[in-house]
Amino acid sequence: MQIIIRDHPSEVAELAAALVRAQILRKPECVLGLATGSTPVPLYGALARMSEDGLLDMSLVTSYNLDEYVGLAADHPQSYHTFMREHLFDRAGVRPDQAHLPDGAAGNPDAECIRYEAEIKAAGGIDLQILGIGLNGHIGFNEPSESFSKQTCAVELTQSTLQANRRFFGSDEEVPRRALTMGIGTIFGAREILLIAVGAGKADIIRRTVRGDITPQVPASVLQLHPNTRLLLDREAASAL
Ligand code: F6R
Question: How far away, in angstroms, is 35 Cα from ligand 1 center?
């Protein structure tokens, strides 16, 4: 793991955007793995601005998002489909047919997971995977568990994740309890991984991810074994290292 620390979250976002841009310049038809959540929002803003200013061309990029809530249709205001359209795809000119997320409204979630996994493989796998990290060490929605999930799968969200997601929904009842997520194996298959974390709240889980045991109880700890992973942190997120 390579660890890069910047003073301020805005510098983290700028560097992340520069690394994504470098990947797209190297291989304009690359396959990106994308995350949602609050952490990558400034990164997507920077990529959108670069595209609007003519400094970045994402028209040939294919993307696969990590996850989607079970039960939310693509046009639901809190779906990750909507999030990605608003924060990146519409502004950066990523065509809908090139931007993929698991279908949270699929009638058969298990079949949808098999389909999504096969589609990523058929696209040649992921060149660069962007990750955030949950307070419990989840990546995608792979929550702490007894084993590392191999492939895209349907999961129950833990109480800590439900609480963290509550802020995006009107009431407790509206917070989805299940999600479809790339598996740890899917994520690990990416040729390059860029995990971004900012803020003091992430300091403890970053320490456990980097310095702790490799265990499915801290799903992100598996990244210690990945041959090409960067952790891009601000001072606060790195403060317990
Ligand atoms: C979302 C995802 C999650 C988030 C994590 C951190 O697609 O994969 O693992 O990255 O929950 O969320 P934020 O960035 O909101 O702290």
Answer: 7
